[in-house]
Please model this.
Amino acid sequence: MTCKYPWSSIYVDNNNGKFNVKPCCRASNSVGTADSIEEIYDHPALQQIRDTFSSGATPAVCSTCVDKRADSISDPVFKCTGLVDWDIRTDHVCNLKCAMCNPYQSSKWHEDLDIYQKYFKDTTIPRRPPNWDYILEHTRNTARRIYLAGGEPFYSKQVINFLTELSKYPWNCEHTDRNTNQRCESKQHHVLVTKTISQGALLYERGCC
Model:
């Protein structure tokens, strides 16, 4: 069973100042780290995963996912060539402090960092924002799907600026996904959504709270 995600998709997230390297969000764990977003796609660990699939075998990090999907591969990414799918965890900027969240994913939690650290010992280093110029250069006119998660994507000026710039180009995306808490609706938000729909993209908003 061959999966095309290692060729067609890029997963952008980071931890402790390093970008995690994974073939996609479904992978059981990270296979390495990168210092910048530019290093992710050609990372040796991802090259090894591609080589393993090409040889007819299944990488261990992908085995559960591919085994479950082997009889019903309907995801359009499986029919694509080139880098067309972007899974972007933007940064930790957020306007809410949800009980199930943490300082790594929500800047609002830093107001009560002393309380959080009484009960949890996990990382409190916030996500590094990705290189949005790089993402724009490699998504405009080519991306088929863009997934944005935060923090709260629409509370981030960088995300708004990225979508504003992206909307100036012919839209080739089949859809964009945004994981949003829907608590920071704005006129600009609606303008971007309306413009995106008018250019043929299907939008899905999934609340995280």
